[in-house]
Design goal:
By secondary structure, the chain is of the alpha+beta class. It has a domain of 123 residues. The strands form 3 sheets. It has a 10-stranded antiparallel beta sheet. α1 runs antiparallel to α3, α5 packs antiparallel against α6 and α9 packs antiparallel against α10. The relative contact order is 0.09. The model has no long low-confidence stretch (mean pLDDT 96). The protein binds zinc ion (ZN). The site of zinc ion has 6 residues, from loops.
Length: 493
Amino acid sequence: MQINSLLNRFLKYGLDKGLISELDIEYTANKMLAFLKLDEFKEEKVDSYDFLSDLSELVEYAKDKDFIGDSIYEKEIFIASFMDLLMPRPREVQHQFDVLYNEDPKKAVDYFYNLSHDNYYIQYDKTAKNVKWTYKSEEYGNIHLTINVSKPEKDPKEIALLKKSKSTSYPSCPLCKENVGYLGRINHPARSNHRIIKIRLNNEVWYFQYSPYAYYNEHSIVLSKEHRPMVINKNTFKCLLDFIDLFPHYFIGSNADLPIVGGSILNHDHYQAGNYHFPIEDARVLSEVVLNNEITLSTLKWPLSTIRIRGTSKEKLVETATLIFDTWCNYQDENVDIIAYTNNGRHNTITPIARFKDGKYELDLILRNNRISEEYPDGIFHAHRDVHHIKKENLGLIEVMGLAILPARLKKELALLKDVIKGEIQIDEQLKQHQSIIDDLKNEKNNPKLDELILEKTASIFLKGLSDAGVFKGDEKGQQAFNKFIELIKQKI
Ligand SMILES: [Zn+2]
């Protein structure tokens, strides 16, 4: 296709998606010309277009003209910069969001989500390649699983370049607000087409954006204005509930503030939110008590020890959550290996989640401890070694709510595992780590549902990892210890 026709197609796409208006046509066309070092543009009638294939064609054009080389990061920078030409300025996005918010909060987030999707900030064709399934567990109900193949992998040439590249501290991290419009580098993602929305939580400025990796529906990130470390305290509960007031149809949660039990980014205070029904929401209630006629406190049948508090008063919930958090931070029960402080500092923390349900605020407080021992150098309450072939990384907010994010390598390994079980190929070093799955399914080689059985096995191993992370185990000893902690909380309220 002629480059002129291609540009016409992008303009039509931008118009159809509301990224630009009729008033922007000539201006945007001219910006595209400058970007591609062209001199002339001719308007053409466009009957149809295919955005993703048009984008691939544009990338090929850029390679032909030597604007970019073969590396992934150059391609990402090129695409983000080009798409930015079709984007409103940050103030226009904020304005449109605010206007719609006054009509209906859902309309505002829908607008912003579609914008982040249509400008290809969310690279949805890549996330579509993720493998997703649901596992029906007898004990805990449904568990959701995803093999995540959408995060860009680097080729060896890029890794070599990466070693030589100079490190700079701008933007300080991939979450900072300074990423908006940032070109990108080999060691920092391309963010030309990135936009964020300013909101207020607990009388402080925060920013709202979507995650480019979209682990679940409308996966969003809420980040503090300052680049400051993750922290869980009274203000966290206030912020989470303020967010629920702003967007009642979204849940929001925070990763814990300690390594091993926290997320991958501990140096920038942030939360994750979205429009997704996580398995933990449906966890069976084990015990329930109403405190002072105001707050319902329940324990849940869940692999991780979880306390749920519900009520209509935000203030009372914040008070109760803070009391539970403070009590937990100093709680010791050596019979079940819970030690609050060692020479390495504090070990107890929580992963909090907030939602609005049936007219009440709901907070799930998941008790965590990040202590390590000689027996468990990766964490006493972290997925143990026998689970690492499936999941070795931190069990963060998303996982502890019942959605596994599993490493990309598993897509290939599980496919090969099937061939090993069927006796079609020999087991190799890489696949040996999955010996337990092979042993369990060795009599199923002719089962037409072998694929499903492998996914089931994988899920049950992940679930075992979640149970490893539970501070009070599901057995009698663990539940008695959990009850002892709950009694202490009740006394204090
Ligand atoms: Zn930052």
